Task: structure prediction
Amino acid sequence: MKKKPDSSPLSFMMRESIVAPRDFNRWRIPPAAIAMHLCIGAVYSWSIFNPILIRELGVVSSAAEDWNISSVVWVFSVAILFIGVSTALAGRWLRIVGPRVVGACAACLWGGGFLVGSLGIYLHQLWVVFLGYGVLGGAGIGLGYVSPVANLIRWFPDRPGMAAGMAIMGFGGGAILAVPLKEFLIRLFYEAPQYLGPTEAVNLVTENGRRFANVAGQQVEVVVASAADASAAAGVYVVGTGNTGATGAFIVLGIIYFTVMMTAAFAYRVPPRGWKPGGEAPQSDGPPAKEALPDDVHITQVHKTPQFYLLWIILCFNITAGIGIIGVAKTMMSDIFGATLPGIVTPAFAATYVLMISAFNLLGRFFWAYLSDYIGRRKTYFCLTGIGAALYLSIPFAASSVSVNPAITWLIMFYAATMLAFTMYGGGFASIPAYIADLYGRLHVGGIHGRILTAWSTAGLLGPFVLTYFRERSMQSSINDLASRVDPAEFARKFGSPIERLEELIAAKTVTIGKLMEIAPPGTVDPTPNLYNTTMFVMAGLLAAAFIANIMVRPVDERHRVKNTHPELA
Result:
């Protein structure tokens, strides 16, 4: 019986309506797929927003009601979590409705997530930013990630690796375009807050840890920008009178990404039944034939094998080590080298660092996957985890050294170590599908890969948590140590409150490491570069654990392999 045509208003988007003619040029599909992935790959440039979101009210310095870095970075974590959730749920839906519907939904969610996030920033409601960028945006990334890949492989059955690589290349390099665009938009919408004058010229009052000044007969909350705040001249500024540019940037980015992704989605076409490139075997738009190859492991058996959990741990810990840094990359570069090498490590330099992370992440996806074909997947992961652990151990050494001896040598060492580490971060993603195929065969590699990618979601929560938790602990300890060194009378003069109220002043962001260093005794070493040392030791430990897990990987027991499986099980 002939299927009744779909007469719904959106029928033109469904799979049956986007079947290409037989003379369709398949090279029209990759640009759309790459454009989609370039847009969603911008998630890796999230750290560009961290420095401005933590001073959204104070603009030049954090005000008491401003968000903390440990809160803001969780927006990125939630987005990564929902990437995994949406990719796990999208596979079957994609097969039913086709890539255009899924791609269009991705455009609405990713672009709309920015718009909802902009409302959260404008209202200063962090939960709305979580909902917009984290939940909606993360789901949009996941749908945009899966929508073109399977379709590309159908169009390029003669070169499936190249086809998938074209899209994934776009995702890995998305931040390369996003970083300069975000920086431009932030500068475009930036507005300096009301300046009241130098600190010594303004009569300041401290209440409950907050600073206030008299403006036109009214007490208004202010922030005091120190010489360390490179974004503005030192002095007193009125809270809530400027604009960091974050809201406007979010709005424009949402519109751009929605437009580009929707255009890409409407360019998607699926091959007709029986279509073939050249002399290749016919390809069908329908589901693949149900068949099982000898010695493959069925997807229902993988959870009974220890190799599945070992691969999950290896991937999770490898991602955890890198994704925590990605979430705070710009802030970390400024913290470690901003004060010690101020002439070199400017905000623009820190933004370029984020861009280079994306470039080396992209490079690693090609290099390590290519190398694994020659040395094997197990040896590749020994390199990724073993060398990676050594690289993370070198970071605290460079940070501690630059705090004592501010030489560019330590910046070069840090930069080289992190860039190499990020090739390994990308290489872990690119090499895991082949590792799965080596162990389980090719029959169910897609399904098994999807399940192991839940490690990505877990790492998206674990990495930023580890980094921000130990950073906050180190910061609290450093502030307490510095406060014990300064003269109490000088402390009271600078902050308008006795040192006994230190915790209150810290909570209101009135006291910071940078401001304490201004009154610290001569010769005091700035502890800021060392804020991430404990985190790096923990990350190195996770990679060492992944190294051990990789040692334990052995061929899958023969009892789990399929032998002449009945087609219905395949």
Observations:
- The beta strands are 195-197, 204-207, 210-215, 218-225, 235-238.
- The first strand starts at residue 195 and ends at 197.
